[in-house]
Design brief:
single chain; about 1050 residues; alpha+beta; five-stranded antiparallel beta sheet; 37 helices; about 5% strand
Length: about 1050
């Protein structure tokens, strides 16, 4: 068996190694025979690829490029966006004290009120956007419930005394009539100071928003005028003498009955109409009294201590089981209510408006107001915009983004504390900091990342030009003519041109494939491409320089160079490309686009280096053979020129290896220390990585440092730990599905992450709470009565929940306004219930919450007619699969590289030792990520996979050099290999390091940590492994040497009859 294995191994080595080497020998001969056609072929291919740049495109949709694809979430996201347009467009304003202290002060609240004054529809400083001659303000863009026709204003005149009936404004007319009638009776509530004006009705509902100001009377800063008028009389109408009010309501019912008879209705129809009208008006009276702000206490009349005490009591009330009506009743009874409620008297999730709360003294570091604007494709907003003549998605998007851009322009002077903003030095709010964030701000972060920083690219390329000139030039000034002849500065510049052309060509190629650019493509690819491309260029040129046995034969010199360096350059390029292409399997578009870009980039490098750099190298060899100077091609006389072998025999690095490092590598103690240190460091860092690394990447790190996005997100992502989730229900028979939904509410509420402050029942349209469909005394509506009851409810106190439904005229019919629900023909295509989750400042908790929510919902409804969704789920979805992706992608990359090494390197032993070294370095880098505060995410996984390939850069050349180096023993061969290859390996490490070094000057911190720091660590560890650990392992376990003479043979006809190899051993250096 042993003999059989040795025979198989020998066959493998001969077939693979000689086949690869022969291929390069033959190609070298082809380049020497046809250099110009090959060069022009490369130039044409690159030019054709560059044509694709006309299709260059970028993407800046955070959600679409960051979401993990290929799971059930795809369908859930599509359903939610189809029926509700996606998550709301949240517009945020945050106030904090500049000393980091309590922001819940009179000054802090005043600063908040001043900041949000531009969010008041029709206000003096309202934010507006002009488009096509039309002005769009806050009321046009903010999310609000649709006002049904029966609440609308009307215009009764002598000629048209029943305009209210003709326009359907039954409830606004009826309510006003009840109010006027009630004034005639005697009640316990004082008469209002003002009456409802003639024709009164509600023209719009308030914008949906949350604010600390809602805990005070000043929360009505944006309350519409009609609702302000209602605010003054609603308590009087609700709490007036019940008998009088009932009689007034019946009077209105009699008017409706008479009108029905007048229009030809029967007595039965008139009675039914009267009963329906009085029942609905009674519900409206109950709903109206709880709306508004007049009963809340004003903060402007409080001391600093009273404000803190009030907010403490309000937060306690909101988190208790008390009903919102209890707080209103306290006010009606003349007490001092302390509660945080919306305008429609639902509890606010205080963790969304307060952060940094110190329960010991009641101080609050951060105050937040969040206004909800309509999603671009929300059905209600589509209808609203169509009424304004905007009929396309592009038009709606322009309005939404344009308004948000105007908001950014409005808030920026306050954020930057400009003079005249009120927040500048010496001004009212100089001790207050304002931060803000619009929905478009996240996409703007990506768009900013898609804008290259040209000066960084220029610095990188200039630096590489200098490095290439220094490393490829000859600087023995005592031999000026030899320096002029043997320097390769011009060749290096040509190689730089090939690398740059390759980068541009690949950009055109991926553009032709409609692969859009992302911030990584713009801000990282140019640097990685430069570093890796220059590394391979240096290997080729360095090998050419030190192939000096036949300086007068350019053809043989090129062939020998290719046989030496070609396989290792191919191994490294294909290995890196393979790792990138394996990483492109990650189902996150921004990661996939980047990985595809870099994978194709490596292939472009490989092809163009072979088509264009090799002819340049051949021509340079002709130049040297013809005694022409490097830069200016001046003919030099042979006098005073050293033989090239003597001139290039030893540089400083080689002398260092020969004198110091080679003896050290031979030392057994040194070998033991290297192995022990490598193993110990790998074990420690691997343990650190697997046990301590955190999931995620902060969006703030992607924002430009010092920008308003960076400032806001740095606080928001770490301090505000609550977020919203929707329970979305598809089209079902709600009459029979009620029990499932009610059970689901209880099960979901028991999930540890779900907030008990503003519970799902507090916010649900179905739950047994105030203003919900079910009354507190009901458990369920009989199935056959559901549609009738729903129609009554949605046209009364449930009208503020209308945006939580998508209604259609039949299953396949068009959308209709749910406020006009017809129990016989209308169906509910989709509904949603709001809930809040807390403790969400870490990605680990995001993942646990996501899984627990799904498990809870699915346990009640295995058919998944209801599912939990939010855009946060989509953004964080990748973290559900991060560890799985890590093992599959990095493992797949490692297997791919192992196969490539085994096939192209020509030695199983070398391949196994290299594979082990690569795994060791990747584990070490993984541990270092924790020390660098880099989280586990799609970018990290791709980086680790790519490092599998990049470490080949530090090991392949050493491995192949050892394989072809002859010597009496392994130690001698290791010493000789290091003497020849330490410098190009070091140069390769330098190119990688210096290529990413400019990223430290990027304005985006993400690039510092994820690319400069990470790749710098990888470079250091890879270099140590390549020139220290791996040589030690070769000195212990390395295979026997192989002869290159099998390829470049005596008669030159072994593989190409045109190659005149000559005889003798090939020497490098």
């Amino acid at each position: 068996m042993t003999g059989h294995c040795l025979f198989c191994r020998a066959c493998f080595v001969f077939v693979v190694d000689q086949g690869v080497a022969a291929t390069y020998a033959n190609y070298g001969g082809l380049v020497a025979r046809r250099p110009l056609p090959l060069f022009l072929l490369g130039l044409v291919l690159a030019t054709v690829a560059c044509v694709g740049l006309i299709n260059l495109q970028t993407t800046n949709d955070v959600l679409s490029i960051w979401m993990y694809r290929g799971t059930r979430l795809d369908g859930e996201k599509e359903f939610y966006e189809t029926y509700f347009g996606g998550d709301t467009r949240a517009e945020n304003v945050m106030i904090s004290a500049d000393d980091g202290g309590n922001a819940a002060t009179l000054l802090g609240l005043q600063a908040m009120q001043e900041a949000v004054s531009s969010l008041i529809p029709g206000g003096d400083s309202e934010i507006t956007y002009e488009r096509s001659g039309e002005t769009y303000g806050v009321a046009d863009t903010c999310q609000s419930a649709t006002v049904p026709s029966y609440f609308r204003p009307y215009n009764n005149t002598a000629e048209s005394p029943f305009d209210w009936a003709l326009t359907g404004a039954f409830m606004s007319y009826g309510y006003r009539e009840v109010y006027l009638c009630a004034k005639e009776g005697v009640g316990p509530i004082p008469l209002p100071a003002e009456d409802l004006p003639a024709g009164w009705g509600i023209d719009r509902f308030p914008c949906s928003r949350l604010s600390p100001l809602d805990c005070f009377q000043e929360g009505g800063y944006d309350y519409p005028e009609a609702l302000q008028q209602l605010d003054l009389v609603s308590t009087f109408v609700r709490f007036n003498n019940e008998t009088v009010t009932a009689e007034c309501v019946q009077d209105f019912g009699d008017v409706v009955s008479a009108l029905q008879v007048f229009n030809g209705g029967t007595e039965e129809e008139a009675a039914a109409a009267s009963a329906a009208a009085t029942a609905q008006l009674t519900l409206v009276i109950d709903a109206f009294f709880s709306w508004g702000y007049h009963w809340r206490l004003p903060y402007t009349e409080m001391t600093e201590d009273e404000i803190v005490a009030h907010l403490q009591a309000a937060r306690e009330f909101t988190s208790s089981d008390a009903d919102p009506t209890d707080c209103i009743a306290t006010a009606v009874a003349g007490g001092s209510p302390a509660c945080c409620l919306s305008w429609a008297a639902t509890k606010l999730e205080t963790d969304l408006i307060f952060a940094g709360v110190d329960d010991s003294d009641g101080s609050i570091k951060y105050l937040m107001t969040t206004q909800a604007n309509f999603p671009i494709n929300h059905p209600a907003w589509i209808s609203t915009m169509e009424a304004r003549g905007v009929t396309t998605e592009e038009g709606r998007e322009a309005i939404a983004l344009g308004w948000e851009a105007a908001m950014v322009d409005d808030m920026t002077p306050r954020f930057e504390e400009e003079t005249g903003s009120g927040f500048g030095e010496g001004e009212t709010f100089e001790d207050v900091d304002l931060d803000f964030f619009a929905k478009r701000s996240g996409d703007d972060i990506i768009e900013n990342g898609n804008t290259p920083e040209p000066y960084l690219i220029i610095i990188a390329y200039l630096g590489m030009v200098i490095f290439a000139a220094v490393s490829m030039g000859s600087w023995k000034f005592s031999e000026p003519k030899s320096v002029a002849l043997y320097s390769r500065v011009l060749l290096s510049l040509g190689g730089m041109f090939v690398v740059a052309l390759s980068t541009a060509a690949c950009l055109g190629f991926i553009s032709a494939l409609s692969i859009p650019l992302t911030p990584l493509s713009v801000s990282v690819v140019p640097f990685l491409s430069l570093g890796i491309g220059i590394d391979d260029m240096i290997i080729f040129i360095y090998t050419l320089v030190h192939t000096t046995d036949s300086p007068g034969d350019p053809r043989r010199r090129l062939v020998t160079t290719l046989v030496h360096a070609g396989p290792s350059v191919t191994v490294t390029s294909i290995a890196v490309a393979s790792c990138f292409l394996v990483a492109s399997a990650v189902n996150i578009l921004t990661v996939r686009y980047f990985a595809l870009h870099m994978g194709f980039q490596m292939l472009f490098h490989l092809v163009l280096l072979h088509l264009m750099l090799l002819p340049l190298m051949y021509w340079d060899s002709i130049r040297v053979a013809a005694n022409r100077s490097d830069m200016f091609l001046i003919k030099l006389s042979p006098e005073g020129i050293l033989p090239e072998a003597e001139f290039a025999c030893a540089n400083n690095t080689q002398r260092f290896v020969e004198k110091f490092y080679a003896p050290l590598v031979r030392n057994k103690i040194f070998k033991t220390l290297v192995i022990v240190i490598a193993i110990a460091m790998t074990a420690a860092l691997a343990w650190l990585g697997f046990s301590e690394i955190k999931l995620g990447v902060g969006l703030n790190t992607l924002a430009v440092e010092g920008s308003y996005q960076n400032s806001f997100l740095s606080v928001f992502e770490t301090e505000f730990d609550a977020s919203s989730v929707m329970l979305v229900t598809k089209e079902v028979d709600f009459g029979t599905y009620q029990e499932t939904l009610l059970e689901m509410q209880d099960v979901v509420q028991d999930v540890e992450w779900v907030s008990d402050v503003s519970t799902i029942k507090d916010n649900s349209w179905l739950a047994d709470s105030f203003s919900s469909l079910l009354t507190p005394t009901e458990e369920i509506i009989p199935a056959d009565e559901f549609n009738e009851r729903f129609a009554e409810w949605i046209q009364g106190q449930g009208v503020t929940s209308a945006n939580n439904f998508y209604c259609a005229e039949g299953t396949d019919g068009p959308r209709v306004d749910c406020a006009e629900f017809d129990p016989d023909t209308t169906v509910i295509k989709a509904s949603q219930q709001l809930l809040y989750v807390h403790d969400q400042t870490t990605r680990e908790n995001n993942v646990k919450m996501f899984r627990d929510m799904r498990e809870a919902v699915d346990s009640v409804d295995p058919d998944r007619d209801t599912f939990a969704y939010s855009d946060t789920f989509a953004l964080q979805s990748q973290y559900l699969y991060s560890w799985q992706m890590l093992f599959w992608v990095v493992g797949g990359g490692a297997v791919m590289v192992a196969v490539i090494i085994a096939v192209l390197q020509g030695s199983l032993t070398i391949s196994l030792l290299m594979a082990g070294t690569i795994i060791m370095v990747v584990l070490q880098v993984f541990g270092f990520l924790t020390l660098l505060d880099v989280g586990l995410n799609g970018f990290t996984i791709v980086n680790l996979c790519v490092m599998v390939g990049l470490v080949v850069e530090f090991t392949a050349h050493i491995g192949r050099g050892f394989l072809f180096t002859a010597g009496d023993n392994r130690d001698d061969r290791v010493a000789q290999t290091l003497t020849e290859l330490l410098w190009p390996t070091f140069a390769g490490a330098c190119t990688t390091f210096f290529a990413v070094l400019p990223l430290t000057f990027s304005k985006i911190s993400f690039f510092h940590s994820y690319y400069f720091q990470t790749f710098a660590i990888m470079t250091a560890l890879g270099f140590f492994a390549g020139v220290c650990f791996l040589p030690v392992m070769f000195s212990i376990l390395g295979p026997s040497s192989q002869s290159i003479q099998k390829v470049v043979n005596e008669d030159g006809k072994g593989f190409s009859g045109d190659i005149n190899a000559g005889g003798g051993e090939v020497k490098a250096g």
